[in-house]
Design brief:
about 350 residues
Length: about 350
């Protein structure tokens, strides 16, 4: 079991971050496109040389710009699995897996069995489905006996059943071998089933970190909230769980213990807790805002109503209502409506 330490500054890509991965831990990197996720993996793999930084895996220093150290990619004992399996078309499945450094035909047979692909040994890549090709690519990465496995959206191009099978294989292999891994994904299921810890990147910097459970339940960043499917409003904390936005809207909620008046804070609430009205409601809901409907999305028996982005550029608030309610309201993009949520449904936390 091997830990990983990364410190990297890549000026041309706006990357400036530092993080570690404990031995046997799976860390998920989340963030919008261009946030620096893939560049971070490429620094670990040795495909990108940072302007300043250090990469250490266990006791081995792979990159140290101050000391002039840069171990070649093929000597790093780092496995990289991408969305494209990148199998050699002229080699059989066994030949592809045996091609990995430190592999052999015996090792190829072992790892093909480990990823439930032993029956594919004699096939060629053109004869494989997307899910089968990814299992073979995983076997090839593992056959090289890497100290750390880098996963750059390896399930993104798979259908639901193939992705489910691949997650099962990854979870089993990572848990059994205690191999450290860094995962890039845009899929909530990948985080729920594979990740121990989450780092949220934005503009090349880490803006939020924590256990997968904590970040998904109580995200502190805009991207984290959108990824977890909850609403987030930025503002300044006041007394008794009051949050005031930059544009003067006041939200009432339940403050966490770490929130102090005058601090930057966020209000979080579930779209299912939001009621939608044509006319401004009167009565118990203490939090009511007028919004413009941006889009409607059918989710089975639930309709998600997404509002235009907030005045500070944050993602628009969302409400989940029944199809019957949506039909009665006769909603359409461009309509002005009111979103209301009770104070007890709003949690106020300190900003990251």
């Amino acid at each position: 079991m091997t830990d990983v330490q990364v410190r990297a500054v890549v000026e041309s890509r706006g990357l400036d971050l530092e993080f570690d991965v404990a031995a046997g831990e799976v860390v998920a990197l989340l963030g919008p496109n261009g946030a620096g996720k893939s560049t971070s993996l490429h620094v670990i793999a040795g495909l990108v040389r940072p302007d300043r930084g250090m990469v250490r895996v266990g006791q081995r220093v792979l990159t140290d710009t101050a000391a002039g150290v840069h171990v070649a990619t093929h000597d790093r004992r780092v496995g990289l699995l991408l969305q494209d399996a990148l199998l050699f078309p002229h080699l059989s499945v066994t030949g592809n897996v045996a091609f990995a450094p430190r592999s052999s035909r015996a090792a190829a047979a072992h790892w093909l069995a480990e990823v439930d692909a032993a029956d594919l040994a004699d096939r060629h890549p053109r004869q494989l489905s997307g899910g089968q090709a990814q299992r073979v690519a995983l076997a090839r990465a593992l056959a090289a006996d890497p100290d750390v496995l880098l996963l750059d959206e390896p399930l993104a191009g798979l259908d639901v059943s193939a992705a489910t099978a691949m997650r099962k294989v990854l979870r089993r292999v990572l848990a059994r071998d205690g191999r450290s891994a860094v995962l890039i994904t845009h899929d909530l299921l990948d985080v729920l089933t594979l990740a121990d810890r989450v780092l949220v990147l934005e503009d090349g910097r880490i803006i939020e970190s924590g256990s997968a459970t904590t970040v998904l339940a109580t995200p502190r960043s805009r991207f984290g909230a959108r990824f977890a499917g909850v609403n987030l409003v930025d503002g300044t904390a006041g007394a008794d769980g009051v949050l005031t936005t930059q544009w003067g809207t006041v939200w009432h909620g339940n403050p966490a213990a770490d929130v102090a008046p005058g601090q930057s804070a966020v209000a979080l609430f579930n779209p299912a807790a939001v009621a939608v009205y044509r006319d401004k409601p009167h009565g118990s809901p203490r939090n009511t805002v007028e919004v413009t409907v941006a889009e409607l999305d059918s989710r089975g028996a639930v309709i998600r109503v997404r509002a235009d982005e907030q005045p500070d550029g944050a993602p628009g608030l969302a409400a989940d209502i029944t199809a019957e309610s949506a039909a009665e309201l006769r909603l359409a993009p461009g309509d002005r409506v009111y979103f209301s949520v009770k104070a007890q449904e709003v949690a106020v936390h300190q900003s990251p």
